[in-house]
User: What shape does this take?
Amino acid sequence: MAYELIAAVDMGSNSFRLQIGRVLDNQIYPLDSLKDPVRLASGLSAGKMLDTPSQMRALDALSRFGERLRGFAPEAVRAVATNTLRVAKNALEFLPLAEKALGFPIEIIAGREEARLIYLGAVHSLPAAQHKRLVVDIGGGSTEFIIGRRIEPQLLESLYMGCVSYTLRFFPDGRIDKKRMRDAEVAAAKEIQAIAHDYRRHGWREAVGSSGTARAIADVLELSQLNPGGVAGLTREGVDRLRSLMVKAGSVDELDLPGIRSDRLPVMPGGIAIMSAVFEELGIDRMTYADGALRLGVLYDLLGRFHHHDMRDATVDQFMRRYQVEARQAERVEETALMILEQLDGSIDGPENEGDVQFLRWAAQLHEIGISVAHNGYHKHGAYILTYADMPGFSKKDQARLALLVFAHRGKLEKVSALPSGDPNWRLVFALRLAALLHRSRDGVPVPPFVVRASGQGFQLDLPGEWLEVHPLSAVALTEEVAVWQRIGVELKIRQRSLERLVG
Assistant: This one.
């Protein structure tokens, strides 16, 4: 389904932003935007706990965003949270409150996924080009580095340094001097050195700064005429001059330069220190800037899903190749699992079933990736990979759901018994387990006619008695499956029916 209006919410470490776009001819045109300088990262304690005041600022901002988004379909809104909620130990406690305030689900995305979306947004706001671009996005808590050509990223990295976190760390009282600035630059340089060799070796023709920090610095450099020859964007010489002026001023409060917005001023020291290190370590002399970044990238990624260009499908295909999944077996299990789900639900074609169908398909395609590690306990290895691997297009919540399905597709169910009894994942677990069991022979022989239904406190499976007689191993496996479900208080009934009755 396509929508005329779509929206993205970016819960950044410095600011929260809402972007609403109108979709015309597969292009997105900005319609409305809201911004709130929440400074979420400033509420992160040394123990990585998000304090109450920062949570309240965040909830207030999300409530305002939620009011603007009233009437939007859930599928037309995507909200993402970045570094601060990635590292906050109490993020999972805060998330339900945030989702209630906003009125929509919120995804905590991994650093490289953030980098991918930033690049997608940046290139859609720049003139088309055939050459390679380096995109650098200095956020509040992390900085993303991406090299790509056209709309395809080639190198992705996210480093744990941002304008808010570095300002709090090196300039906590707002005072700026040479030593503090140098300490901040050295710390940033050490982070960048870990990726500098690979990035320099890969190469790029054009360096681009995206989002708030790059734009704020560029505005100051241009309006204060700090760039040599009056060139636009960011230059190494201009950044050095601005750095010197900040040190000379001695404090952010004493810095009087045109172009610095009041909401950006408090975090400028950290942003300048990181940008100086970026120019130095990557050998950059000049950088342009792009207005588009994470929010626009989220919108275009959302648009792609409407047109069945879901990045997650491409990622699953890549994982199947990387981990040498037997494609024919995965296809058989997928087909049968979807057949089971359709019998349980009556229909799986409606938009309300789209998410469950997608995750069941992906889980079926990837349920054996752990065999590449070891056959013994391969479902555990598969779940581990899906939990911790970088999976473009998937949020951490997506990965956790996918990992759960793969983890639960064989073995004991006590390990996932914490799932509430009415959780829709139970249907998917049942469908995937039964499909994998029915195809355990891996011989490509079609499964027999069967009927499944939800019944009382569990499930009922009708199978031909003739088939069970000639497949004693499967009959034993089904008996064991009944016991597995029984141990978690779920009834699984296996009924033998005549082939004629099942077919009829």
